[in-house]
């Protein structure tokens, strides 16, 4: 009888010693599919079923079931609202709305943690300002007294305010800034209701690619690092740290796949979001606007600090955040170790330019900064060339063969950012060397110094072929 009582007692206490055994654990993740810089933290994990590979199923999680919920948003602010309301556990967003997330949690006496970078640029590329195609505006300085729309509380909003401050303007007096989502901005640009629109990835590239607008300013010109990353409710992380690590293992795998095959996964992202694959590749290709470093580099920490300062400027934050507590790399360090990666090496890494082979000559490309790329229709891989001149010659020959380019990529000589060549300006020097520029003003400034000639895309093609441009 005594043995029977002991057995019954142990049977009763067993579930109490393993509280998660019969538990259904919610994993509610707020993602931004169309914000393609967030792909490795949401879209790719969901579409490829990566999270299930890494979820813990032993120890205190033995017998637990997982309720994985994906909720898609068009910006970071509503994700923060649902995280604070307890409806989401994770959220992916940029540095500026991420800082706002931390402030929002603090206001209600709770905490969130910024647990990883997903995609970023230490130069600031990824955000931009566009104007109507026929606009006479050539640079940001031409927009004084004009109406500029931007998604409020977005990373593009922060970029715009910093760029305006750099010009010495008062954002309340020298320009009219209105809140506008990118879904509305496209038609507003075409109808002339606004003079310019500032936005985050991919819209400052997507609108020009589709002929809706012309880009005049890239975030790299503001010189402030920018990134998209992932956050988690701190209480959730304290309760389920292994689940947080599992999510980051999925992030690491999605990042590996995207880095190894950018064309393939650009096509997948395009299929899900309807954002054209060449635009996705412009961000995620090996020479793209942003890198996929998951480590908390010093520059990205500075980006969060700059965002807090901007929030103070907007009077959206009375007090700052303890960045050492808010930015928590404990989980990404553990996930990296489990994935066989050395986090300290990732943290210190300053990647050298990738080694490419010229598609025309088969020789290694020695100076990547002068290179160009072609993505042809019906081809699954991008072609690379050592120079703009060789790329344009190759393009002309390929067109003669009846082939069509989906995109032609060049590198802006000023910022180093990748741009669409057919929307760029070029300078032809006396030695025949071409260089590309995002803005006509930048091209003109360089041309004046070298006695060069400013050309548009068609004129540049004609120049390298030695034929007159008859347009």
Biggest sheet descriptor: 5 strands, mixed
Radius of gyration: 25 Å
- According to CATH, what is the class of the largest domain? Alpha Beta
The H-level CATH homologous superfamily of the largest domain, spelled out, is Periplasmic binding protein-like II
User: Termini separation (Å)?
Assistant: 102 Å
The outline comes out as globular
CATH architectural grouping of the largest domain: 3-Layer(aba) Sandwich
Strand content: 15-25%
Average pLDDT rating: 91
CATH T-level fold name of the largest domain? D-Maltodextrin-Binding Protein, domain 2
Helical content (DSSP H or I, runs of 4+): 40-55%
Put simply, the count of helices is 19
Lateral arrangement of strands in the main beta sheet:
2-1-3-10-4
Overall structural class, as computed from helix and strand content, comes to alpha+beta
Low-confidence stretches: 1-20
Number of E-type strands: 17
Number of domains: 3
